[in-house]
Amino acid sequence: MYPTLESMGINSFENIEKYTLRYEGGFDVLKIYYRREKGSLLPKSKKFKFGRATRTVLADGGQQQYREVSEPSLVVLRAVDELGRLLGQEFEDKLTKEDLVKELDHLERVMASKIAEIKEKIEKLS
């Protein structure tokens, strides 16, 4: 039913809540979020990185100037199409202020946790 998602190791389609797709450091990053019960040991999300294909195209027909253009991988395009069908096109590509605030709060918690972990390692070395 969803061959691309299955090839990526995604099996529990009924638990997929939403997904995000962004461009980061030369890669397309697809993150799939799952509905999980409180206390579940299963991950709440999975992240996949896809390289981009580059090709040279004629930029200006009159002067024979070429430029490189990067394109998303066919795998990520197929995965996003399958996710759209799976979620019934409920997913909207536009971000809201609330979404960005939640993402920033999550990032702050992750960074604070990582900083505390590194400080603890430094203390153990002293």
From TrEMBL:
Organism of this sequence: Marinomonas communis
Name of the protein described by the UniProt record: Uncharacterized protein DUF3461
Coiled coil regions, renumbered to chain: 97-124
Pfam families: DUF3461
Entry-linked NCBIfam families: PRK13677.1
Presence of keyword Coiled coil: yes
Alphabetical list of InterPro entries matching this protein: UPF0325
Keywords, comma-separated and alphabetical: Coiled coil
Domain of life: Bacteria
